[in-house]
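Holo model, MRU. Inputs:
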Amino acid sequence: MPETLTFDGDALHLLDQRALPVDVRYEVCRTPEETARAIKSLVVRGAPAIGVAAAYGVALAARRAMESGAAIDLALTDAHRILAASRPTAVNLFWALDQMRRVQRSLPGASSETLFDALAAEARKLQSDDVASCRSMGEFGASLFPAGARVLTHCNAGALATAGYGTALGVIRSAHRQGKIDRVFADETRPVLQGARLTAWELVNDQIPTTLITDSMAGFLMSRGEINCVVVGADRIVANGDVINKIGTYSLAVLAREHRIPFYVAAPRSTFDLATPTGKDVTIEERDPMEVLEFGGIRVAPVGVDVRNPAFDVTPFALVTAIICETGVAQAPIAEALIRLVALPFDPALDPAVR
Ligand code: MRU
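Output:
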């Protein structure tokens, strides 16, 4: 698997996810502005990957100030503002910016050089900690899967959406390693096709048996017993357990409940937003109508039609069987369970197999 993102000390190299699976190419970001544009335009996407990219965007602002002699405080304030405005829904973006601000505040009056070193080190730590979290939730999640799992996943919550390994796909990878996966069904995930272009690509690369379906086929396959569990990622999980994830997630949860199929959500604690009471309180990104009006660059709807394009939806926790994170599995009563998992220690250096 090519790396989702790498930092060479001067620039952030992002695997351009708009081009996959046809082209494997990298976009190079040297400034916070370029990083924010890459996040907004989906060069890099997926909640944890957005967070890590934004962290490097802040480090790049310090690097530029170091070279130009610009006032570092102002440079970092601007970078935070620009990066925070890139996408509104995935809380990992704001969480990562908070981590970077904490490092900055711990070094009052420091030079641009000192701040660049500290901020780059913090961004690298966020990146490697995210991989460790994914591996840990992979182990916790795989233990919930039945033998012979025929699992449906939606959007892309894989190595591409994280610093590596993936959340929902991390659970699938760990379950596959344990011999529990019979087949994965990947929803194509209209309108941007993260399932078809990205999830199917990752799973085929890993030689995990995978069937691609269009979003509207999931209910039929469930009704025929062809799917026996669902696992998805999340962009935000709020205090009452509501899950904000890619548009279409809610419909799948309703279908899973109707067919008595377990519905799991895998996400690191950087996706938890326990200060927000319910899913109704979260800003849902509305994206460009052209994503709906076109398919593969070809117009598929008449000029003049109105379009809605919410990128995410809210799944009430009542439809969720369990939430899996790096410190364990949360079930009802969910508010208490989420607080308990946040309070548990997590050592990213420990191998998940022995944790
Ligand atoms: O619009 P995207 O592609 O950034 O949306 C991504 C998702 O909805 C993922 O399911 C979520 O971020 C979890 S990624 C581990």
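The domain at 138-354 is CATH 3.40.50.10470 (Rossmann fold). The CA atoms of residues 286 and 310 lie 4 Å apart.
Archived with the compound record.
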